[in-house]
Amino acid sequence: MNSMSRNHFSDDCNPCKKEEKHCPTIIKCGCPSSSSIPAATVAGTTFTVSSLSLDTSKLCDPTVKLEFASNLVVPVAFTGSVDFQVFKICRGQLTPIPVGPAWTFSLVALLASQTFSFFVCDCNSCFDDCCTYTVVATVTSAVTVGTLSINNATLGAIATCGTGGCC
């Protein structure tokens, strides 16, 4: 067994043994932000629209529910599709890892405003993790027509001890 083996700790190093009777819950909210996808943006262009950092080192086998909400505003006619997806990068990682599926927003509208929200769960954290979660918008249509404003984009997290590997 190596030091990276999950759930195989000696009793003195295992956070599950130390906190058997008490499991804290962490609630964290990111700061609202706004960004715009300008006209003539091509497929594959990405925008980071929200982020937050979360330290789950005090949790045993953490489960994290991530909630994203925004107000999408079309000030001028917009045609296009945008995928929103959560990514995480944890201590020692070089490449962000996707968390859950991508959520697609497609619109052909003259003037519009609507909320766009989704949630995903992350149950693949190791002990002693401090991770930064980001929501990335990726243009998926060949090219956008008009401007899309992503207003009050907010990412929130609720984390607690895991439920035995079920997410």
What is the makeup of the main sheet? 5 strands, antiparallel
Strand-and-helix sequence, N→C?
Answer: HEEEEEEEEE
Mean pLDDT: 84
Strand content: over 45%
- The Cα radius of gyration reads 19 Å
N- to C-terminal separation? 26 Å
How many distinct beta strands? 9
Low-confidence stretches: 1-13
Q: How would you classify the helix and strand content by structural class?
A: mainly beta
Shape: elongated
Defining traits:
mainly beta, 167 residues, 2% helix, five-stranded antiparallel β-sheet, disordered N terminus
Account of the protein in words:
With 167 residues, the protein is mainly beta. It is 2% helix and 56% strand. β5 (78-90) and β6 form a beta hairpin. The protein is elongated.
Structure described in brief:
The chain has one helix and nine strands, in the order αβββββββββ. By secondary structure, the protein is mainly beta. The protein starts with 14 loop residues before the first helix and ends in a 6-residue tail after the last strand.
